């Protein structure tokens, strides 16, 4: 059995007068330490699947297991979530924001953890500052530090780079990739950016139009996986894979 297993998951949203089938019969397995991406047409259920993997919603059918434990209703599993917006609390200092999760979980922690993580993400000495004093890219780096502080078993990244300018986005991709390797984390990235998926992942799952199913899985060649996301974009194997995924995605959208 793999580290993260999505077994036979389907999901339908019900409202008073409509039923929306978001996902249909999803099976996938992710190994510990692996980095995978979900891409697919808009509305195909990627965020729904992340919410199911996070244990935030119960799927209509099927189950998700992390480290052999069922996720839904499991309070022991810590799963990190990084979103497009950083959701830092403006009235709390950077340090308070980083240790908040640990406090909420009642986990014992080292008083220097915020400083150490801030140093790791390249932002030393900003513990006492407030979120409003930082740029968008810096705030996302603090969000990364906050996510890592609770030592999550899995990190779920829902378009965390998409609100940033191009240069900040490339820098943050490199940093996230480096940090996740250093901390041996398993991660899932949802993105609309094929290049980002190739540059950051070991494998890419392409979803079909709603109701989302796994249409195709792409292995990223090893020579790209060993590079930083920035370097990966200029490797000779990058462009052929980009074209292949692009064509497949186009065929799904028409
Ligand atoms: N809470 C909800 N209630 C009803 N329908 C929902 C709800 N959340 C999502 N949906 C619908 O389920 C489908 C899948 O949505 P989801 O956000 O998972 O897709 P997505 O692939 O992440 O989309 P995008 O790429 O545009 O972010 C969409 O048709 C959406 O409108």
Automatic annotation (TrEMBL):
CDD domains: ABC_NrtD_SsuB_transporters (cd03293). Keywords: ATP-binding, Nucleotide-binding, Transport. Residues 4-234 form the ABC transporter domain. The keyword tRNA processing does not apply. SMART domains: AAA. PROSITE patterns: ABC_TRANSPORTER_1, ABC_TRANSPORTER_2. One of its GO terms (molecular function) is ATP binding. PANTHER family: ABC TRANSPORTER ATP-BINDING PROTEIN, TAURINE IMPORT ATP-BINDING PROTEIN-RELATED. This is ABC transporter ATP-binding protein. It comes from Ureibacillus thermophilus.
